[in-house]
Amino acid sequence: MQALTSLFSLENRTALVTGGTRGIGAQMAIALAEAGADIVLVQRDTSNQQTKQHIESLGRKATIYTADLGSRSAVSELSKSVLADGHDISILVNCAGIQRRHPAHQFPDSDWDEVLQINLNTVFTLCRDIGAYMLTRTPFPGTESTSPNGGYRGSIINVASLVSFQGGLTVPAYASAKGGVAQLTKALSNEWASKGVNVNAIAPGYVATDMNEALINNPVRAEQILVRIPAGRWGTGEDFKGATVFLAGKASLYVSGEVLTVDGGWMGR
């Protein structure tokens, strides 16, 4: 039992999480803390302290860094600040995202640019910069045989979407960005898996969060979605805790380049 438990332990680990103030991201951050990790939360501002307080109530450290993820320069400075302050990041979770809905023939350039910046460009920048640091880390003891380059150094978990596979309706920017996240995940895995950094993604199905408020508030569309979900319900943030802990640690050392759907069976329908 102790050996099995150690596969899912994140003791002495530090994770950087974007989008951790609410919904899926909050539960992912809390799950990592429950498994033993300290958490660096990236937020737009410090007004929302709920996730930080929850993590601290678990006896783990939680530190907030503020950054405008819609600003390329702010994102570039973020990693430098976090690493300069001595945080040994061995888990990166890119969960922050926004949604903009318009018919494709009316989709504004400004919304396109904003969605692509936050949902894809920021993901790449953080993967690149934190990933570069992970590649320099000393491998975790006991993992020397897990890669040709001496062992396991860290895990990156990106948040993709069902529209990484499907096109969606009235969300061309979001679909393009999330399709890009899936391919970025695979591309980085191809380069880094042999060097001890695993890169995977979680693709949420339909989840009852603020981002899906427009769908939830449309009774016809909400019912159309519900009847197609084999599990018979919309997802919740808590449904992502197990997958996050799995992909963050030793239980998934031979898993890389995977886009794991957590969708109540939607993609198998």
UniProtKB/TrEMBL annotation:
<dbReference type="Pfam" id="PF00106">
    <property type="entry name" value="adh_short"/>
</dbReference>
<feature type="domain" description="Ketoreductase">
    <location>
        <begin position="13"/>
        <end position="205"/>
    </location>
</feature>
<dbReference type="GO" id="GO:0016616">
    <property type="term" value="F:oxidoreductase activity, acting on the CH-OH group of donors, NAD or NADP as acceptor"/>
</dbReference>
<dbReference type="InterPro" id="IPR002347">
    <property type="entry name" value="SDR_fam"/>
</dbReference>
<comment type="similarity">
    <text>Belongs to the short-chain dehydrogenases/reductases (SDR) family.</text>
</comment>
<dbReference type="InterPro" id="IPR057326">
    <property type="entry name" value="KR_dom"/>
</dbReference>
<protein>
    <submittedName>
        <fullName>2-deoxy-D-gluconate 3-dehydrogenase</fullName>
    </submittedName>
</protein>
<keyword id="KW-0560">Oxidoreductase</keyword>
<keyword id="KW-0521">NADP</keyword>
<dbReference type="InterPro" id="IPR036291">
    <property type="entry name" value="NAD(P)-bd_dom_sf"/>
</dbReference>
<dbReference type="InterPro" id="IPR020904">
    <property type="entry name" value="Sc_DH/Rdtase_CS"/>
</dbReference>
